[in-house]
Write a structure and sequence with these properties.
The chain is mainly alpha-helical and 101 residues long. The protein has a domain at 33-99. The chain has 3 helices and no strands. The model has no long low-confidence stretch (mean pLDDT 87).
Amino acid sequence: MDQDPTIQSARHAGPRPLRDAWHWTLHWSPVWIPLVLLAQILILGLRPALARSRALDQLTPQVMERYDATHATHGDLTREAEAWEDEIFVERHRRALNRGR
C-alpha cells in the first residue's frame, strides 16, 4: 500500500524548515519569553524611572527649601489662629487698638 506522492501526510503541518523553526520557538519559549519581558521592562520601564529619579534627586534641595519656608509659615499661622480663638487675647488686642486712637 503505497501512498500517492501528491497527497501529503496529515503528520506534516508544513515545510520542514518552517516546522523546525516552530518547534524550536515553542521549545525555547520558557527562556525567550522572560528575556523579552525583562528587556521590555528595562527599556520601557526601568530606564525612564531611573532618569526621573535622578531628575527628582537634583530638585531635592529646592523642595526642602520650599518645605522649610512653608512649614515655618504654617507654624506662625497656626499660633496666630490659636491666639484669635483665645478670648483674653482678643480682648487685650481690642483694648490695645482703642488706646491707640
